[in-house]
Design a protein that fits this description.
heterodimer; A: about 850 residues; alpha+beta; seven-stranded mixed β-sheet; four-stranded mixed β-sheet; globular; B: MetI-like fold; about 75% helix
Chain lengths: ~850, ~260
């Protein structure tokens, strides 16, 4: 054993070396970042023909998959995989001429037979394809020759080419169709290159694309819906293109950055205050008109979108063909609103609920609408819902009064012809006009009909039409040809060009091969401890551990079963048919008795099978791995910082005695204990990342991008997480040191003339360490889980965010698996601490 | 030091008083949206300015004290009133009761508190009451442990043995002798759990799971104003300061009680 003095010198040398190493790693080279696009929502899977979530199309449409046609900026169908088409005079059959020399990325050829197969597959009974109902009008798919396809319809439909442009109608290879959700294969300019759930999705250039080569060799999609993380990401230039930037309140600040270009473009999305036309007072036209008069669109746009939106008067966007401006039909007039309410028999107003989905535009709009309606006597209670609950209560069961939502699909006015749609609107005139429209091919006639449809919908005040949802696009200023008008919610990456920027990079995914090694080490350590401490102690502790885990599993299973909301409905989206939902429920194993499900689940856990995630359709273990690669280092770094700072503070405090430095340190510790970690995180982000630019707030670059950048991304979060923890450790350490100092042997040492400093360093500290380390060991799991708020602020794809997202997505299996994992870690930690204490203290062994 | 306890109690009392007053009166209606006057700086009419929807910041801070303080109080009460007696029972009856109580506590302790709270809120939905229940549930095993440890230390004392010899039953012994002697330990723990509850509520409110609009809450105010932190930092700084001061006062109270108990 080294004597006291030499031990001190050795320790100091180690510290210096560690610091030098950290600084060196920090400065290590940053690899060239691939072209990065940020999207708000992550797709649940990658097959646009099997699900309605718009995020699927945003990632795969015209990147991986292509259809026979596509839409141009004005919403007109133009050729894509079809070079052209001819329509029979009665509009009941079309002949499509297909492009030759087109191949799928797996090498298989695209021809008329494949096209026929794709469309037949899309419209088969029970298909989850969002366009299945619309394609039901197809009665015949005739392969006339290798590159000519005739489509016969049951009724005239002028809109077939536009329908074929939808993401649900893309061409798919028959051989690979079953696994498209996780292995998408299409004809587009990019191939699928890998997906780290919750973090990024990679597309790689398809060099065999029929149109040539896209300029970008690789695209990384990152998923950022938190407005603060989005702001940080664009300001620190971690993202090249953000087609739907979620924080309009920041755009002025973003505009001022010369390296960024902001563009505001119209979209097909209409934000409406949807009214349940069958709910009490709302069944009266006068009441609905009163609501329309009570609303001040300008105020709503100013408050919810910081002014970045255009008011609308009906369910139609201003840039659509045949648009009629009906904004002035119901001007803001609270007096008129009250008069209408009185006439309808509600002189003192009435009470109603307003369901609000979790998007920030919806929440803010809801608050403003509630205030404006209160001014005319309608007492509104806001009901915030997660998307699965919204889909269940509002969309499926129509159990609502009012709700705020954006309808993003192009030309979706046909929903006003459906009596079973959640508006519960019965409009025979609109239905007749829609039927006429379907059969009309003359452009002028169509415009006239569309105008009449808009007027009717507005006249009947079916809903209150608020504003058109804008595409707020933030992009690198050097980007060229980023297609801004996007009727199909997709960016045309095939023609995207970037001036003067090297968009390089190869795929680099982080892996955790360390897990088996760690497990082996752990097992060896426990066995050794068992030998030393005695089998009795080991067995009792093990028994407690197993019992606790069993109890925890029961708790988790019971809680997750009680959570309301149907994962199947959430996954399939708004347009899913009830049959598809039932089929998916069966597939996910959501039927069956509670006992059977528990036995299944628990058995799987014991085998190491954490189950298959509902939303992502991959094993939960594969989801958890990459998250641990973020959360574990974060917790570890935070713990290192906390222990270092905490110990130093406690020792300094002990050394200072009763002098004023001790008071100062004590005040600092009190402050550290009281500061909320997410507040600290926000302030740190503001100061160090945004204002000073010292560290990147770019989310997670992955371990594959270099040790330095990854560590840099973890530093601020670790400080935010570790500072309060340091205060706790300083507390505990201070107490342990104080207690130790009161012992007899310390008094003896003091009496024999040994200096106070030396006593502290050589005698008190080493003996006070065991209880301190015990606390540290027990706090570690809390750091792992408690990082969820810090991960939210910094946009890190860690374990905490996984739990949060899984709860929102009603992915109960993932929630349960992660909760069990965290419980396991906690129980294991306390088991190890117990064992360590038994080893260290012989008295404990005899108990 | 008694000074700490008084300082802490004083601050906390002030915060609670403000929260109670806010239920009947605030300078402006805390929920009054006035988009035309959004993001105004401090003035005579609005001492701390207005937020992104035109609401008076001072009024929102006053009203926003209710959810965190109320949640922490309710959660602490739940923990103490359920956990305390359970811990007492476990201490007084070593054997099956003790085992059951301790093992259940172990199971609850297996989960990091935030995960348990998230699970419960996922089931019950967001709101002040679910959060209070969730944090209260997390508090119960803590109070069980403290009460059990303190009671066990008391139960082996001589005067308890004397009381038993004198013929007092279990219940009477508990009431007359054990409870008064563990009261100070429970009080200290209550103050600690109060501050834990404040931070937990703030965190859950920040995640959007606490008090729902239009009811203001400090944690949610920080979340709502996060994107404006670059242009209007006061919208984030003030609510965070309030949370910090409230937690600080609870910690000071706990400290003061602990030292008084020891002395």
């Amino acid at each position: 054993m080294l004597a006291g003095v030499e031990r001190g010198r050795w320790r100091r040398w180690c510290l210096h070396a560690l610091l030098a190493l950290l600084v060196g790693l920090w400065g290590s080279a940053v690899g060239a970042r691939p072209f990065t696009v940020a999207l708000q929502l992550e797709p649940p899977m990658l097959d646009p023909t099997a699900g309605a979530a718009s995020a699927i199309g945003e990632v795969t449409y015209r990147t991986i998959f292509e259809g026979l046609t596509t839409l141009d900026a004005t919403g007109q169908a133009v050729p894509l995989l079809a070079t052209g088409w001819t329509r029979a005079a009665d509009a009941r059959s079309y002949v499509f001429h297909l492009r030759e020399e087109v191949r799928f990325s797996d090498g298989s050829a695209f021809d008329a037979r494949v096209a026929a197969w794709s469309l037949a597959h899309a419209r088969r009974p029970g298909s989850p394809n969002p366009q299945a109902a619309a394609l039901a009008g197809i009665v015949g798919l005739d392969v006339l020759d290798a590159h000519t396809l005739r489509i016969r319809l049951s009724a005239p439909d002028a809109g077939l080419p536009a329908l074929l442009a939808r993401p649900g109608c893309v061409m798919v290879p028959p051989r690979a169709a079953a696994t498209l959700a996780v292995q998408p294969i299409g004809t587009g300019p990019f191939r699928f290159g890998g997906w780290a759930r919750g973090d990024r999705l990679t597309l790689v250039r398809n060099d065999d694309w029929w149109r040539g080569r896209a300029q970008l060799p690789r695209i990384d999609f990152r998923f950022i819906n938190d407005p603060a993380a989005a702001y940080a990401a664009v300001r620190t230039h971690a993202v090249d293109l953000f087609p739907d930037y979620p924080a309009p309140e920041n755009l002025e600040a973003v505009r001022r950055d010369p390296r960024l270009a902001v563009s505001v473009a119209p979209s097909e999305g209409e934000v409406i205050l949807a009214l349940n036309n069958r709910a009490g007072p709302l069944a009266d036209l006068r009441v609905r008109r009163a609501i329309a008069h009570a609303l001040d669109r300008r105020a709503i746009i100013a408050g919810a979108m910081s002014g970045y939106a255009t008011p609308i008067g009906s369910h139609y966007p201003p840039q659509g063909e045949g648009y009629v401006d009906l904004v002035g039909l119901y001007p803001h007039d609270p007096g008129r609103a009250r008069a209408l309410l009185t006439a309808a028999g509600y002189p003192r107003g009435f009470a109603a609920t307003l369901a609000v989905p979790p998007a920030s535009y919806a929440r803010r709009t809801g608050e403003i609408v509630a205030a404006e309606l209160a001014a005319v006597g309608i007492r509104v209670t806001l009901l915030p819902l997660e998307w699965p609950q919204w889909l269940d209560r509002v969309f499926a069961r129509h159990a609502y009064d009012m709700t705020v939502v954006s309808h993003a699909e192009a030309a979706d006015y046909d929903i006003y012809g459906r009596t079973d749609y959640y508006f519960n609107y019965d409009g025979p005139e609109v239905r007749a006009l829609l039927a006429q429209l379907k059969a009309t091919t003359d452009a002028r006639e169509r415009r006239g009909l569309l105008g009449r449809i808009q007027r009717r919908i507005a006249g009947d005040a079916v809903n209150a039409f608020l504003f058109q949802f804008p595409h707020l696009q933030v992009a690198d200023a050097r980007l060229r040809d980023a297609w801004v008008n996007t009727p199909l919610q997709a960016v045309d990456f095939g023609t995207l060009r970037l001036n003067g920027r090297d968009a390089g990079g190869d795929t680099g995914q982080g892996g955790s091969a360390a897990a088996p090694v760690l497990a082996a080490l752990l097992l060896a350590g426990v066995a050794l401890a068992g030998l030393v401490a005695g089998p009795g102690v080991l067995l009792t502790r093990l028994g407690v551990l197993l019992l606790t885990l069993a109890g925890a599993s029961l708790l988790v299973f019971w809680t997750t079963r009680l959570a309301p909301g149907d994962p199947a409905q959430f996954m399939l989206g708004m347009d899913a048919s009830p049959q598809a939902v039932t089929a998916l429920r069966g597939e996910l194993g959501l039927g069956g008795s509670a006992m059977a499900q528990y036995a299944d689940w628990a058995g799987g856990l014991l085998r190491g099978d954490l189950g298959t995630s509902y939303t992502y359709r991959v094993p939960v273990a594969s989801l958890v791995g990459p998250r641990l690669a973020v959360s574990l280092p974060l917790a570890g770094l935070a713990m290192v910082l906390a222990v270092a700072l905490g110990l130093v503070t406690a020792i300094a405090g002990a050394a200072a005695g009763r002098r004023w430095p001790a008071r100062l340190l004590d005040a600092g510790v009190q402050l550290g204990l009281a500061v909320p970690s997410f507040w600290l995180a926000s302030l740190l982000l503001l100061l160090f990342a945004v204002r000073l630019g010292w560290v990147s707030a770019a989310g997670w670059p992955g371990w594959g991008g270099g040790f330095g950048p990854a560590l840099g991304a973890l530093l601020l979060p670790a400080v935010a997480l570790g500072l309060p923890q340091a205060a706790v450790i300083a507390r505990v350490a201070g107490g342990a040191l104080a207690r130790e100092r009161q012992r007899d042997y310390v008094r003896t040492a003091r009496a024999s003339g040994i200096g106070e400093r030396r006593i502290l360093r050589v005698h008190v500290l080493p003996n006070a360490l065991p209880p301190i380390l015990a606390v540290v060991g027990l706090q570690a799991p809390f750091l792992l889980a408690g990082s969820v708020v810090v991960e939210t602020v910094f946009g890190l794809p860690g374990l905490g965010r996984l739990v949060l997202d899984a709860i929102g997505g009603r992915d109960l299996l993932t929630v349960g698996a992660v909760a069990m994992l965290l419980a396991g870690v906690t129980v294991l930690a306390s088991f190890l601490v117990d064992l360590a204490q038994a080893l260290a203290d012989p008295r404990v062994r005899q108990r | 030091m008694r000074r700490r306890a008084w300082a802490g109690a004083g601050l906390l009392g002030f915060a609670i008083a403000v929260a109670l007053v806010a239920r009947v009166w605030t300078p402006w209606d805390a929920g009054a949206i006035d988009v035309g006057h959004r993001l105004l700086p401090g003035s005579i009419a609005h001492p701390l300015g207005t937020d992104q929807l035109g609401r008076d910041l001072l009024s929102m801070l006053m009203a926003g004290a209710g959810p965190p303080l109320g949640t922490a109080m309710l959660a602490t009460l739940i923990g103490a009133l359920i956990g305390g007696p359970l811990g007492l029972i476990a201490a007084a009856r070593p054997g099956l009761a003790d085992d059951v109580v301790t093992r259940t506590g172990d199971v609850l302790f297996a989960f990091p508190a935030l995960v348990l709270a998230l699970l419960l809120v996922a089931v019950l939905g967001p709101g002040v009451l679910p959060v209070a229940l969730a944090v209260g549930l997390v508090n119960i095993p803590v109070f069980v442990r403290v009460a059990r440890a303190a009671a066990r230390a008391v139960l082996v004392r001589d005067f308890v043995a004397a009381a038993r010899t004198a013929g007092l039953g279990e219940g009477a012994v508990a009431r007359a002798h054990v409870l008064p002697n563990i009261a100070s330990a429970l009080a200290v723990q209550a103050a600690i759990q109060f501050s834990v509850g404040l931070l937990a509520e703030a965190g859950l409110a920040f995640l959007g799971l606490g008090a729902q609009p239009p009811e203001p809450s400090w944690g949610r105010m920080i979340a709502d104003a996060q994107t404006l932190i670059g242009s209007h930092p006061r919208l984030v700084v003030w609510p965070g300061l309030c949370i910090t001061l409230a937690v600080l006062s609870a910690n000071l109270l706990a400290d003061g009680l602990r030292r008084r108990g020891r002395a």
